[in-house]
Amino acid sequence: MDCADIALIVLAAGLGSRFGADKLSVPLDGLPVGLHIAHTSNSIDFGWRFAICSPASPLTPRYVEYGFTVIDNANPEAGQAHSLHLAIRAAEDTDAKALLVTLADMPFVSEGLLRKIAAFPTMAASYNGRNAMPPVLFPRTHWAALLNMQGDAGGRSLLHAAQKVEASAAELRDIDVPDDLVRPADA
After folding, report:
1. What is the rounded CA–CA span in Å between residue 46 and residue 169?
2. CA dist 163 to 73, 104, 138, 142, Å?
3. What is the H or E stretch that residue 111 is in?
4. If you compute the radius of gyration of the chain from its CA atoms, what whole number of angstroms results?
5. S-S: 7 plus which of 48, 61, 151, 174, CB 3.0-4.6 Å?
């Protein structure tokens, strides 16, 4: 698929309860954790960019600087599916043919992986050798099913049908606790 036909989504409204603080604002290699994916995707010409953030997130102005439209998620405790619903509703007002969903707490994802996933004409997900996971490409034909999802699993139940794009477990690591901030050797 052409990147110009894709809406890039960054889900950045998580509560970070296991981390014990606002993990997305914690510095990692000179950039807040939550901005790594915005920085990594900056040179890819996606047609639209949406960041789903908690209200008053300190990262909101920075996402705007990266060309994102910021959508406030006033109910982050409703889980990842709620953030995804907000993204879909915003994308429905565009001509986007697909969503490329990323998580702000996955700072080690590479530009190459984003480009590989975006190139698929069908649903495609990152694969660490065990599980399909974000980043994931959801063509418009899957949006209605995603709107029926609830809780913190997001679109996970659909990923069994996704094309799998292999990536290292280190690249697909997320930040859940402070010890996760150590950059893996092969990321």
Report:
1. 25
2. 30, 22, 11, 14
3. helix 111-118
4. 15
5. 48
